[in-house]
């Protein structure tokens, strides 16, 4: 079965709760109910080969202070081929983000830093809670520098979490870049910006 997101890539998500919410001036939070068990969802967060299917590959040392390397290959996330938008072409073959683990409580909680420099470092937290045969994933991205940064990461997280949900539900994800651009536009409206 294909989701509406795949059949109509210009149609915004129908449920408002699919959108991330700004919980304060520097934090955005998402909730997704995913098929379990919790160990399966944890593996998609922490194992490079599984994480590469929806987000980014790379080693992750699962201890406080452990190194995280995230290698983004957006063209590999879906079978749909699309040109990279001009504003992202500067990243070429895919950027790499180096981070460090700030909290790790397998299989329920994982936090790591996010940002290129210590002075703009934000933090991403994944919290997993079993709910029957499903798992509630709560993603919180904190300490974002400004509204523009919040809008940018919200569009990205929304797109990547949609791919994760599709993968875990056995669906083929829709095209990455057109979905990402649609999500960015939605967050510009929701959070303000050009």
Describe this structure in words.
The chain is an alpha+beta fold and 194 residues long. The chain has a single domain, classed as 2-Layer Sandwich (Alpha-D-Glucose-1,6-Bisphosphate, Chain A, domain 4), CATH 3.30.530.20. The protein contains five helices and seven strands. Strands 1-2-7-6-5-4-3 form a seven-stranded antiparallel beta sheet, with helices on one face. The N terminus is likely disordered.
CATH topology: Alpha-D-Glucose-1,6-Bisphosphate, Chain A, domain 4
- Read across the widest sheet, the strand sequence of neighbours is 1-2-7-6-5-4-3
For the biggest sheet, the summary is: 7 strands, antiparallel
Output the structural class: alpha+beta
Write the layout of secondary structure elements.
Layout: H1 4-7, E1 21-24, E2 27-35, H2 38-46, H3 48-51, E3 67-71, E4 96-105, E5 109-114, E6 122-131, E7 134-142, H4 147-168, H5 176-191
Antiparallel strand pairs: 1-2, 2-7, 3-4, 4-5, 5-6, 6-7
Descriptive labels:
194 residues, alpha+beta, Alpha-D-Glucose-1,6-Bisphosphate, Chain A, domain 4, 28% helix
Structure in a nutshell:
The protein is α+β, with helices and mostly antiparallel strands.
């Amino acid at each position: 079965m294909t989701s509406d997101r795949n059949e109509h890539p210009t149609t915004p998500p129908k449920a408002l709760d699919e959108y991330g919410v700004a919980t304060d001036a520097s934090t955005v939070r998402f909730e997704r109910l995913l098929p379990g068990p919790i160990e399966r969802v944890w593996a998609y967060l922490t194992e490079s080969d599984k994480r590469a299917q929806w987000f980014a590959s790379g080693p992750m040392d699962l201890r406080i202070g452990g190194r995280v390397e995230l290698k983004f290959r957006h063209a590999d996330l879906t079978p749909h081929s699309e040109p990279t938008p001009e504003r992202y072409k500067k990243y070429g073959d895919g950027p790499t983000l180096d981070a460090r683990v700030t909290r790790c409580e397998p299989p329920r909680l994982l936090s790591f830093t996010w940002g290129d420099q210590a002075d703009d470092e934000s933090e991403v937290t994944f919290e997993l809670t079993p709910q029957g045969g499903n798992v509630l994933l709560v993603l919180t991205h904190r300490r974002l520098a400004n509204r523009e940064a919040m809008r940018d990461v919200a569009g990205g997280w929304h797109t990547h979490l949609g791919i994760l949900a599709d993968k875990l539900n056995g669906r083929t994800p829709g095209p990455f870049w057109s979905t990402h651009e649609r999500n960015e536009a939605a967050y510009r409206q929701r959070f303000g910006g050009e």
